[in-house]
Specification:
The structure is a single chain. With 244 residues, the protein is of the alpha/beta class. Helices cover 29% and strands 19% of the residues. The chain has one domain (3-243): Aldolase class I (TIM Barrel, Alpha-Beta Barrel). An 8-stranded mixed β-sheet has the order 1-2-3-4-5-6-7-8. Strand 6, helix 7 (183-192) and strand 7 form a beta-alpha-beta unit. The protein is globular and about 45 Å long.
C-alpha cells in the first residue's frame, strides 16, 4: 500500500466515531479543484496504471510499519480508521491492508470515487468495511469535464447501486464549484441517487496549491446558495445537507 499521509485524529470524518485517517497515494481522476495534488501521483509507478508523465510528480510515502505502529499505540483510544486518497481502490492490496487494520479491532470507513465497483463489492461481501462515502462529482453528462479524464460511467453507476443496496451506512458527497455546477445539475445528480440515505453538498474553497492552478481564485457558492441547492437535493434523497 502506498500511504501518502496520516491524520492522527478526526472527530468529523467517521460519523459517531473517533478515527485516524490514512491517505493512499494515486488517483485516476484529475479534478480541477483537488486540494491534495500530492496524493494524486504515486511514488511507485509500477503500482498503479497511470501515465508515465505523472510519475515524476510523486512524493515520498509513509511506511506501512510506521502506520501500524501508530495504530497499535492507539488501540482503545480511537474507534476506527478512514481510508481515503487519492483513490484507495486502485491498490490491489487494499483488502489485505484493511484486514490488517481490522485485526487490531478497528472499524473502517472507505472514501471512494466509485470507479472500481468490483473491488467495492468484494470489500462489502467480505465484511471489510463498516461505512462508505462515495464522491459524486457531477451529472453523468458532465463528469468528464469535472474530473478531466475519460470516465467509465457504467462503473460509477454500478458503484452507486452496490452502495445503496448494501446494508452498510453510507453517504454521497459532492463538492460544488460555480464554474462547473449549476442548480439544474443538482436535480440530475439527485435523480442518479434517488432514494439514497445521505447526500452532502460541500463548498469549494479556493486556495493555493490546487491541482489546477487556474482554480485557485475561482468564485465559490455562498453559504445560503449552498443551502438552497441542498433543498433541491432533498427532493431526491432522505437527507441532503450543505457542509459549510
Amino acid at each position: 500500500m502506498i500511504i501518502g499521509g496520516l491524520e492522527k485524529l478526526t472527530l468529523l470524518d467517521f460519523p459517531d466515531n473517533l478515527a485516524a485517517i490514512a491517505f493512499t497515494k494515486g488517483c485516476n481522476f484529475r479534478c480541477h479543484y483537488c486540494y491534495n495534488p500530492m496524493l494524486v501521483w504515486p511514488h511507485r509507478p509500477e503500482a498503479l496504471a497511470l501515465d508515465e508523465k505523472d510519475i515524476e510528480k510523486g512524493y515520498p510515502q509513509i511506511s506501512e510499519e510506521d502506520l501500524f505502529l501508530f495504530l497499535k499505540e492507539r488501540q482503545g483510544k480511537i474507534d476506527g480508521v478512514v481510508i481515503t486518497g487519492g483513490e484507495p481502490t486502485l491498490h490491489a492490496d487494499l483488502p489485505d491492508f484493511i484486514k490488517r487494520i481490522k485485526s487490531l479491532g478497528y472499524l473502517v470507513k472507505l472514501d471512494t470515487n466509485g470507479t472500481n465497483p468490483k473491488m467495492l463489492a468484494s470489500l462489502i461481501e467480505n465484511k471489510l468495511i463498516d461505512y462508505i462515502a462515495m464522491d459524486l462529482k457531477a451529472p453523468w453528462d458532465k463528469y468528464q469535464s469535472v474530473v478531466d479524464v475519460s470516465v467509465n460511467l457504467d462503473n460509477l453507476q454500478k458503484s452507486v447501486k452496490i452502495i445503496m443496496s448494501s446494508s452498510l451506512p453510507y453517504e454521497f458527497r459532492t463538492t460544488l464549484v460555480p464554474d462547473l455546477h449549476q442548480a439544474q445539475d443538482i436535480a440530475s445528480m439527485g435523480e442518479a441517487i434517488r432514494g439514497a440515505t445521505k447526500w452532502y453538498l460541500q463548498k469549494f474553497k479556493p486556495d493555493t496549491g490546487l491541482l489546477d492552478p487556474s482554480f485557485e481564485h475561482k468564485s465559490t457558492f455562498t453559504d445560503q446558495e449552498l443551502k438552497d441547492l441542498a433543498l433541491i437535493g432533498a427532493k431526491f434523497v432522505k437527507k441532503c445537507q450543505a457542509r459549510i
